[in-house]
Design a protein that fits this description.
Chain lengths: 346, 352
């Protein structure tokens, strides 16, 4: 009786169409999430990179380095990440990766503690966890790939700024997010170095640009307004230094306020060539990602467990040994200036 | 009577509604359609997305969806009265920040949680005051308080995140009941669900809520305390949002000013998907649960299949539009079924 009248059938079709549309969206995700067996077996070379946030040139380079390594040894590469560098966003992605049963995660942590529980759950499910660039607490991960010693990174930036402002005056720090492990480690070491070796330099302020270009730009402007006698800015984040250089280039402070920190050659080339920035430091982020991928592979295949003294080979980069606390050092930081910036492309 | 009110309102119950057999009355409803869609999506996802069928998926899904489930309960009541509360996500952020700052200042976490609940209740009371006493429209008021409370939350903490919480409580937030994959927090949700269901469907207060949604003037003349009811409902949304904020903070272990930004849209989308009419006067809690789970399952399955979050948002948006439009389409279809001269057309056409 319900379906005999023409309009009754139309009503039934309408309801059916709605349901089919819903099912279609449910089935739209019919392609496989990735190959490889369930986590924990030594053949599962599906390694996913989880940077602090997506859309960051530094992480684009490091993740490409990881992709190159993974292609070399025949694994499966994936990159996921939040749009904003916040700790709780990373937790959701780690949970999804645990469900998917990947072989290894390479993560740059937004906070040393907040993602610990999620990472430990992943490790319980057999996923190997490698941190790179920014560490978590040591009990939550298997290995940490440190780009250089934290002391070395802090010292080179302090040396550069001291040289550029004549070893006396006011400086400020433009950092990334307030919780980032690596930023806080470097800032603390910079403060210690300044106190011990540069008594005439005063650090007047530390502001946070959240690794967002516009925010860092605005914070630089605010810094220069609030501290009229500022002679130098140190920005240990590639997003921050690029934004600060962009501000200085078009402002009255160009050439008067020194700017240094950690930056990528491609982003900083213009500013070095026109004199806004004299010199800055970094390492090769592609090498960092490359080494992280090889470390994950060594862990998955059972060659190493992350304890001190383990050795593994990382493709073109050679042999590496695990140090104390499961830390592997990539190398030393490198100074870029007008003489050598043309030689690099990253 | 009902055609004096523009837009859709609940259809007047007539004998033909009771002339259908019980199974038709129970299953062939808006809520039944949502449950059917939910079951189909679950089956489809289990078959087509790898790793979806494991118990850990259900655990993570329920853990993720709990704040929406919690807030959807009082939000259903608010929407049934014809009002809306857009500030719930900001109250989540505010209570998260209050919990974090107080705990960091040394207060034990239980006391900090209690203060956060009180802050949520005050936030809801402020909303209720502006809407009932001053008489402003709820859409305008809650858009304003959305910005106000979010600003307060971010202002209190900046962009720092407090991440140091007592391990006992963060573990409890993520723990599961025994060997099943069901999170412990579902017990809390089940208690609240029972309370809200009883209030909405089995008390005079609940009948008053439906009456206000159908016609607040008629409700006032029937003896329903319209202002008092609305005020209580907004205090409830504020308090339950604060509770969801506490859970959110403990589950992620991170108190930030911008926690749960945009959550209010997910809550309202789920409530509308669950068969509650945006114009008020119609709705049931079991449909809302199905709506929340449907959005949660879709999101979880798509994330597992590595679909980006933008596509997930598009699909959720299409679902929501379809659910609202389908109501009007089915109504139009039903009016077409009634031919002119038909004795049934003497009744006012069923709307909504």
């Amino acid at each position: 009786m319900l379906f005999q009248k023409k309009t009754g059938r139309a009503g039934a079709f309408a309801a059916l169409a709605v349901t089919v549309a819903l099912v279609a969206t449910g089935c739209a995700a019919s392609d496989d999430g990735g190959d490889g067996g369930s986590g924990g077996d030594s053949g599962n070379l599906a390694i996913t990179f989880l940077p602090k946030n997506l859309g960051n040139a530094y992480f684009d380079t490091s993740d490409k380095g990881g992709e190159k390594a993974i292609d070399e040894f025949g694994g499966t590469y994936a990159e996921v990440g939040p749009a904003e560098a916040s700790p709780d966003a990373q937790v959701s992605y780690i949970n999804t990766l645990t469900q998917q049963g990947v072989g290894g995660i390479a993560v740059s942590a937004n906070d040393p503690k907040a993602i610990c529980d999620a990472l430990n759950e992943a490790r319980d499910a057999g996923v190997k966890v490698v941190t790179f660039d920014s560490d978590t607490n040591p009990e939550c991960r298997d290995i940490f790939i440190n780009q250089a010693t934290s002391e070395g990174i802090a010292k080179i930036q302090v040396d550069l700024i001291a040289e550029q402002i004549g070893d006396e005056g006011e400086i400020a720090i433009l950092s990334a997010t307030a919780n980032a492990t690596n930023q806080n480690a470097w800032i603390d070491l910079m403060k210690a170095d300044l106190e011990a070796n540069h008594p005439n330099i005063t650090l007047v302020d530390t502001v946070y640009g959240d690794d967002d270009d516009q925010t860092s730009f605005d914070k630089t402007a605010a810094l220069l307004q609030t501290h009229p006698n500022l002679k130098g800015i140190v920005s240990p984040t590639t997003v921050g230094i690029a934004a600060a250089a962009r501000y200085l280039q078009t402002s009255e402070f160009k050439g008067k306020v020194a700017l240094t920190g950690l930056g990528t050659p491609n982003q900083m080339r213009d500013y070095v060539e026109d004199g806004t920035v004299t010199a800055f430091a970094l390492w090769n982020p592609a090498d960092l990602g490359y080494l992280a991928a090889y470390a994950a592979k060594a862990l998955i295949e059972g060659d190493i467990t992350g304890k001190e003294g383990d050795k593994f080979t990382a493709g073109d980069l050679g042999d590496y040994e695990v140090g104390a606390d499961g830390v592997v050092l990539l190398g030393d930081p490198y100074t870029f200036n007008a003489d050598n910036i043309g030689d690099f492309d990253f | 009577m009902t055609d004096l009110i523009s837009g859709g309102t609940a259809s007047p119950r007539v004998y033909k509604d009771y002339s259908r057999p019980l199974w038709q009355r129970v299953l062939l409803t808006r809520e039944g359609a949502v449950y059917a869609a939910l079951i189909l999506v679950i089956i489809g996802a289990t078959l087509s997305v790898r790793n979806f069928g494991s118990p850990i998926t259900m655990t993570y899904l329920l853990l993720d969806v709990t704040p929406i489930l919690l807030i959807a309960l009082p939000m259903t009541l608010v929407i049934i009265t014809g009002e809306i509360d857009l500030s719930v996500a900001s109250v989540v952020g505010l209570s998260s920040v209050v919990l974090g700052t107080l705990h960091q200042a040394g207060l034990p976490i239980e006391a900090a949680g209690f203060v956060a609940l009180v802050v949520g209740a005050i936030a809801g009371a402020f909303n209720g005051f502006l809407i009932t006493v001053v008489g402003l429209p709820s859409l305008a008021v809650t858009i304003g308080t959305l910005a106000l409370y979010r600003g307060l939350a971010v202002g209190l903490l900046g962009t720092t995140a407090v991440t140091d919480f007592t391990k006992f409580w963060t573990d409890l937030a993520k723990s599961k009941i025994g060997g099943t994959g069901v999170p412990t927090v579902m017990i809390l949700f089940a208690i609240l669900l029972v309370v809200f269901a009883i209030v909405l469907h089995f008390t005079p207060f609940g009948r008053g809520i439906f009456a206000i949604g159908l016609s607040s003037e008629a409700a006032r003349f029937s003896g329903v305390h319209v202002e008092r009811t609305k005020f209580i409902l907004f205090v409830l949304t504020g308090t339950v949002s604060a509770l969801a904020g506490i859970y959110y903070t403990l589950r992620f272990g991170s108190a930030r000013g911008d926690n749960a930004t945009g959550l209010e849209l997910s809550v309202i989308a789920a409530v509308l998907l669950g068969g509650v009419s945006i114009f008020g006067g119609r709705g049931a809690l079991h449909g809302v649960i199905a709506g929340v789970l449907l959005i949660g399952v879709l999101g979880s399955a798509l994330r597992l299949a590595n679909v980006t979050s933008d596509v997930i948002n598009i699909i959720t948006g299409v679902l929501l539009v379809a659910s609202v439009v389908s109501t009007s389409v089915l109504n139009w279809v039903r009016t077409k079924r009634t031919r002119p001269g038909d004795p049934k057309s003497a009744l006012t056409p069923a709307k909504s």
